[in-house]
Amino acid sequence: MSYNIVEKLDKLFNPKSIALFGASNKIKIGTISLLTILAGDYKGEIYPIHPRDDNILGIKAYPKLKDVPKQVDLAIISVPAKNVPSVMEDCIDNGVGSAVIYSSNFSEVGEEGKRLEEEVIRIAKKGGIRFVGPNCMGIVNTSINLCALMNLTIPRKGDVSMVSQSGTLGTISMINASSHGVGFNKFVSSGNEADLKMEDYIEYLVQDEDTHVIVAFVEGTRNGKRFIDVAEKATESKPFIILKGGTTTAGSTAAHSHTGSMAGSDQIYDALFRQKGVIRANDEQDMVNLIKGFSKSILPIGKNVAIYTSGGGFGVLTSDACEKNGLNVAKLSDETINTLNKILPPFWSHGNPIDITASGGMSFDSRINVESMEILLSAEEVDSVIFMEFNFDGYMEKMLPEIPNEDIKNIMIVATEGGLLDVESETKKIIELKERYKKPMICVNISGTYYGGDKILEDGGIPVYLTTSDAAHVLSKLLYYNEFLNKKRRVIDEEKDMIDIKERITK
């Protein structure tokens, strides 16, 4: 991508003013978009364009773009497809630099729509306008409180950025990840990609200082070589997570009818991802899990995992999951076992998984958990830790409604609310240990329900999952990416050594 395109994308994501075509005082897509922009607390100028209404949702409206008193940076277009060319002409005449086109009924529906889309492209090129879509859901830049979306989505602020060829899947995934403490910086629903392509957005995000993790939902690519180039650039500097759709005949057909993209061979994509260090998600939930893992956790330096649990069955399942995902259940040294013996009850498992049993867990002595974690994190044979949730708040929330004796129920409620389990204090100590020893820690909430204590863990850089399989899978992907980076560094170092040798020989 040229520098000029990067500059144009920067204007797209950082507009100081927006003109909105298609909003009215009736509930329409354009109106919902305006509501979303307002709800996100965008600080720039907003100019609704409407031929009759002079006021929309309390904001002064203008009959034509030429009536707007200031220069407009971004046009958001939500009008019938047949009217988009004339709106684009207005944008050119008034010096608008970029646009987002929500409108559908273009190339995704057939030849007639394709001809109309080509007309929009021709007009845009004539005036130098770069645009998103058509048939898209909009863009986000939380750095400037811009949520220009057509479905009232306001994500949490952070450093993850996403490109999605499905607006609905992308925005729903953003909200699901936001509910687990993941913050987003930029988002774009690329739609039909008539002008700006998925690869353009990815390359921009590679250079974007506010983006630390890049995520993409890909139905298909239009320029395979360019996609390979930007994927390589992305993984060299940032984790790049991809959920690939259209992996079957039925999915490929659906992808083509959705945005007009060609899905291509799944085997080819899989080989490409492995070669370039792309982190591949299995499905939409796995994508959210990986986003959370890469945005929260540090990377492991090795395969050896310590498993800490108060339930033997969970230890067995975690061991299975680790092996299936290419991780090692670490063999604890005699020194580590002897140190654990000093604090754990005599009936603990005396090996890895470190099973303190239900009896040990029900002692409610947080010192056991904290001290055990420190022993494991300090052990040379341990590269990371997967641990089961220490407290029973989630379990209690499920159990209390089933207690028929109201007096006992009230006692349990008072005890729990009074801090019987001292969850917050213990959780903060665990986070301090993770920071001190710089080793990944992954938590499994065995109650099966997220609760308040999990938020403290995740805000502190310890992702929480509901199954042992998810925890081991995410940890394996963190290791996979770190191994890719190390291999890349070794190759670069070897190439530098060869250059040095050649220079010495030729002198």
Map the helices and strands:
Layout: H1 3-13, E1 17-21, H2 29-39, E2 45-49, E3 55-56, E4 59-60, E5 74-77, H3 84-93, E6 98-101, H4 111-127, E7 130-132, E8 138-141, E9 146-149, E10 157-164, H5 167-178, E11 184-189, H6 198-207, E12 213-218, H7 224-237, E13 240-244, H8 249-259, H9 266-276, E14 279-281, H10 284-296, E15 304-309, H11 312-324, E16 328-329, H12 334-341, E17 354-355, H13 357-361, H14 366-378, E18 384-388, H15 393-399, H16 406-417, H17 423-437, E19 441-444, H18 452-459, E20 464-465, H19 468-506
Parallel strand pairs: 1-2, 1-5, 5-6, 6-7, 10-11, 10-12, 12-13, 13-14, 15-16, 15-17, 15-18, 18-19, 19-20
Antiparallel strand pairs: 3-4, 8-9, 8-11
Main beta-sheet annotation: 7 strands, mixed
Radius of gyration: 27 Å
**Integer count of domains:** 2
Record field, number of beta strands: 20
Rounded mean pLDDT score: 89
Annotated CATH homologous superfamily of the largest domain: Succinyl-CoA synthetase domains
Oligomer: single chain
How many helical elements?
19
Model description:
This protein is 47% helix and 16% strand. By secondary structure, it is an alpha/beta fold. α1 (3-13) packs across α6 (198-207), α6 (198-207) packs parallel to α7 (224-237) and α11 (312-324) packs parallel to α19. The radius of gyration is 27 Å and the shape is elongated. The two termini are 38 Å apart.
Keywords summarizing the entry:
7-stranded mixed β-sheet; Rossmann fold; elongated; 507 residues; 6-stranded parallel β-sheet; 19 helices; single chain; 16% strand; 2 domains; alpha/beta
